[in-house]
Write a structure and sequence with these properties.
Layout (H helix, E strand, L loop, with lengths): L4 E9 L2 E10 L4 E8 L2 E5 L4 H12 L6 E6 L5 H7 L4 E8 L2 H8 L6 H5 L4 E5 L2 H6 L13 E6 L19 H8 L2 E11 L5 H10 L2 E11 L4 E11 L2
Parallel strand pairs: 5-6, 5-8, 6-7, 8-9
Antiparallel strand pairs: 1-2, 2-3, 3-4, 9-11, 10-11
Helix pairs in contact: 1-2, 6-7
């Protein structure tokens, strides 16, 4: 065990000051990695169950092999690593808007980062997921218009609580139709949300996709001594 608390990185970005911290929790006897944006906690290694389930639930809807997958938002890397555990995945493109977050992984500041960065199937792309989803080029600048089998998204807190006002347009029928245009036939869009299932948003998804399921993922919150929940939406094209 190292220092009780350590700030591993801090820097200003276009959306605020982002920092990566490591601390030892004496009550749980574990090292905890946390990301803050200004004074707001964005993510913690204590709460990763739903991030893993985002990949597992999304990919479970697909049959066949040689899957090409997009992950929107790298974060602490749990969704991306869970996707790589599915041996059907042929390629994994992770789109992250903050170069600092990609650097944390490449510099191995996070545990298990090498599992992601050393896998030949992985490509880390520094870019704006929402601009790529809406633009003409798409998610692969080397192959404009390329389509994928699955898009797994974990960037905003929820469709109603976005990190930047410009992200809100993505969660409309027009925004999701553009995203659907990046998918192959039968492709899957899966989304993590910190909020309970939202019937209005499910109705929006139903305008674009053939099927939609809202999975409530439960996990223990040791800090509050209760069971917490997140939502994973999984939508599929025909």
């Amino acid at each position: 065990m190292g220092a009780r608390f350590e700030e591993l990185d801090w820097r200003e970005t276009e959306i605020g000051a982002i920092s990566l911290r490591r601390r030892f929790d004496p009550s749980l006897r574990v090292e905890v990695y946390e990301v803050k944006l200004d004074d707001e906690f964005l993510m913690s290694s204590l709460f990763t169950v739903a991030e893993v389930e985002l990949a597992r639930l999304g990919l479970a809807e697909l049959s066949g092999g040689d899957l090409d997958v997009i992950v929107g938002g790298l974060g602490l890397g749990y969704t991306a690593r869970a996707a790589l555990e599915d041996r059907r995945v042929r390629s994994l493109t992770v789109v992250e808007a903050l170069g600092a977050v990609i650097g944390w992984h490449r510099d191995a500041l996070l545990p298990y980062a090498a599992e992601l960065t050393s896998d030949s199937r992985t490509r880390l792309v520094h870019g704006d997921f929402f601009a790529m989803a809406a633009g003409d080029t798409g998610f692969d600048p080397d192959a404009p218009g390329r389509r994928f089998d699955a898009v797994l998204l974990d960037i905003d807190h929820s469709p109603r609580q976005v990190l930047h006002p410009g992200n809100a347009a993505f969660y409309t029928p027009d925004g999701l139709r553009r995203l659907a245009g990046r998918l192959r036939a039968g492709g899957v869009f899966a989304l993590w949300s910190n909020d309970p299932p939202d019937d209005d948003f499910i109705a929006v998804l139903d305008e674009v996709f053939a099927t939609t399921k809202a999975h409530v993922v439960s996990f223990p919150n040791p800090l509050q001594e209760r069971i917490a929940t997140n939502t994973v939406y999984v939508s599929r094209l025909t």
